[in-house]
Amino acid sequence: MRSDRKLLNAVLLGLTACLLLCGQENRLERGRTFLGLAPPPDPAAAARGEKIFVQNCAFCHGQDARGAEGPNLIRSATVLHDEKGETLGPVLRRGFPDKGMPAFSQLTDEQSYDIASFLHARVEAAANRYGYKLQNIVTGDANAGKTYFAANCQSCHSATGDLAHVGSKYEPADLQAKFLYPGDSAAPLTATVTLPTGENVTGVLKRIDDFQISITDETGAYRSWQTDAVKYVINDPLLGHQRLLAKYTDSDMHNILAYLVTLK
Ligand code: HEC
Ligand code: HEC
Asked: Cα separation of 64 and 52, whole Å?
């Protein structure tokens, strides 16, 4: 998925033009693209997957997969990178026996596909917030937005620094897009891999899955490692926005915007 970033950026650039002109459906589509989601999940498979999930997984991951004893699966990289159970299946069959998740070694490919469809449907439901209306957008509570900003945005931004006057710089709808949608910076994702020798190699991320990470290094050479043999950090400048997206309520979004427009 990550390796398709260039293509994704091209698609997003095209869609940016349509942000304010096109309707709800395109916004949903953009949301899906931003979250890196595959085409909409198959509803019949998702319904079968829900049954398997409720019986086998909900105890630890919550009925809605938002996490309990086990982690939230709607924000899980394993789930987001998966399309049809091909990434999820092996992870489930292996489990995390040393960390409290049993191995589901009997799981068939069909069952993995069904569970994956259910989880993608849950992610989709979270992405549906893109459908929320842009009309009358400055209806939030600026004070609540200020509090939210201090808690969630200030680690990267400052109201008197980089975001000073942002309320004069952009129209409200554009301003909202700035924190809800990806930027149109076409810079590719990069990653820094730390080898067992301690050497760091930074380059453009080509591929990442549970087993392998590949980059092209500064000399343009393609290099690849087993993920369990190295440490790595993926440098996505907008990862902060992407993470927050899963957390906002509609009123959070309204409140943040109401606050940002006061930064004249
Ligand atoms: C007994 C508790 C338990 C059960 C049952 C369980 N899990 Fe887990 N699961 C965990 C724990 C704990 C982790 C975190 C492991 C770690 O820290 O790396 C986890 C991790 C995961 C991950 C990886 C999340 C990530 O970091 O990307 C996925 C995906 C997952 N579980 C899916 C499932 C599914 C689907 C089922 C049912 C078929 C299931 N789990 C059943 C406890 C459980
Ligand atoms: C982990 C870091 C991080 C967090 C957390 C974060 N942002 Fe950002 N934000 C960025 C980066 C990086 C950019 C610049 C993207 C670019 O230049 O393309 C940015 C850009 C923006 C911009 C556009 C600024 C401009 O002048 O064009 C706005 C507005 C914004 N963020 C608002 C927010 C708000 C509101 C929050 C909290 C709800 C938030 N951000 C949380 C990293 C973060």
From this structure: 13
Average pLDDT over residues 175-189: 64
Q: Pick from 5, 156, 261 the residue to mutate for probing ligand 2's pocket: most ligand atoms within 8 Å of its CB.
A: 156
- Gap from CA of 262 to ligand 2 centroid (Å): 16
- Residue 67: CA atoms inside 13 Å, Cβ hemisphere, count? 7
Give the contacts of 206 (CB within 8 A, at least 6 positions apart): 3, 214, 215, 216, 222
Q: Does residue 4 register a pLDDT over 80?
A: no
Single pTM value for the model: 0.45
Query: Shortest CA distance to 140 belongs to which of 175, 102, 95, 188?
Result: 175
Mean pLDDT of 2-6: 43
Cα of 240 from ligand 2 centre, angstroms: 8
For domain 35-130, give its CATH number from 1.10.10.10, 1.10.760.10, 3.40.190.10, 3.20.20.70.
1.10.760.10
Q: How many residues does the chain have?
A: 264
Q: State mean pLDDT over 137-155.
A: 89
Sorted by where each begins, the domain ranges of the chain are 35-130, 190-235
In this structure, the residue with its CA closest to atom 39 of ligand 2 is 153
What is the chain's mean pLDDT, rounded?
77
Distance 157 CA to ligand 2 centre (A): 7
